Amino acid sequence: MRPLFLAVFIVGLVLGVVSMIGGIDQNHRRGAWVKYVNLPTAGVAAALFGVVGYPLATYTNLGTAPILAIAGIAAAAGAAATVGVIAGWAVPSSRRESVDERYLLQGHLAKVVRAIRTDEEGGEISYEHDGARHTVMARSLDGKAISAGVDVVIERIENAIAYVELWSTIERELKLPS
Hints:
five-stranded mixed β-barrel, alpha+beta, 5 strands, 4 helices, elongated, CATH 2.40.50.140
């Protein structure tokens, strides 16, 4: 019995780690209750089942049925609490989150295809995103000219104009002192 509880606890921990890495599913089009049956809920239920069942099986003289019942109740309570947290906090806060479209490509690498000049006219960059090549007008963040063929990093795209910085500048800032 103890190996079962230990195995279920480990499965719960693995599900918890996977859900932390992957995040909570934000597909709000599914049925009302189905969106709450997910990895965090299953992970909490499994971990609690193992955490409660293992010591009961190790340190008490209770029979198999009462141990399974107590561990199952703990798992159900943990799952219910997780659903409460997801329904009351995680899902509503993700619905309220607004994404600033200007910064969606911040940090994206691009290449200058038409020189960026110091005047207002600007130049042009090309970059790949989601398997498609895009070309947009561009200006330098610091107002300096940038030659064609140079690698740059997108800071933001605003009013169909990309504001860029030299990749060499970013690279130099990223290098750690020796």
